[in-house]
Amino acid sequence: MKYVGMSRWMVGVVAFGSVVAHTAVLLVFQLGQPRIFFAMARDGMLPEVFARVHPRFKTPHVTTIVTGLAVGVTASFTSLDAKVDLTNIGTLFAFILVCIGITILRVKDPDRPRPFRVPLGAYVIPILGAVSCAGLIYYLPPSSWMRFFGWLLVGAVIYFSYGYRHSRLAGPKR
């Protein structure tokens, strides 16, 4: 295969960088996801079993095992392209939520202590961040959109069938 303007070694460097970057992202997801499930269980949005902490290591061992099994099984039956596309759309969507959340917090909690300031960081930078991430998502293949909305639907079903009714964040039940 011929790459316009790139020598063979350049293609190798870019490919190696891609493998390292995707491995790092997936590792961070693998470390972060059990803690997200743990926090959700602690807040009542998942069953209490997911809020258990290992007595010796003080880590959320149940969610770590469940996440590891789910990722392992999914990785066994999924192509590399599908994993990469799902990782890309998921990461970009998370960045969009963070950018929008920053702007919402500026309006809803303007007196929150902020240890550092970013020029144009209250509204312009987060909005540009959300728009640029949305622009990148737009060019992902339709199959990644379908997988993304499928997982989003699974999450919504779990939330509305269990989390919404059990959430401690919603306050006292009427």
Search tags:
single chain; 174 residues; mainly alpha; globular
Explain what the structure shows.
It is a single chain. The protein is mainly alpha-helical and about 170 residues long. The protein folds into two domains: about 1-75, no CATH class; about 80-174, no CATH class. About 70% of the residues lie in helices and about 0% in strands. α1 crosses α2 (about 60-75).
Short description:
With 174 residues, the chain is mostly helical. Helices cover 69% and strands 0% of the residues.
Break the fold down into its secondary structure elements and pairings.
Blueprint (H helix, E strand, L loop, with lengths): L7 H35 L18 H16 L3 H29 L15 H15 L3 H25 L8
Helix pairs in contact: 1-2, 3-4, 3-5
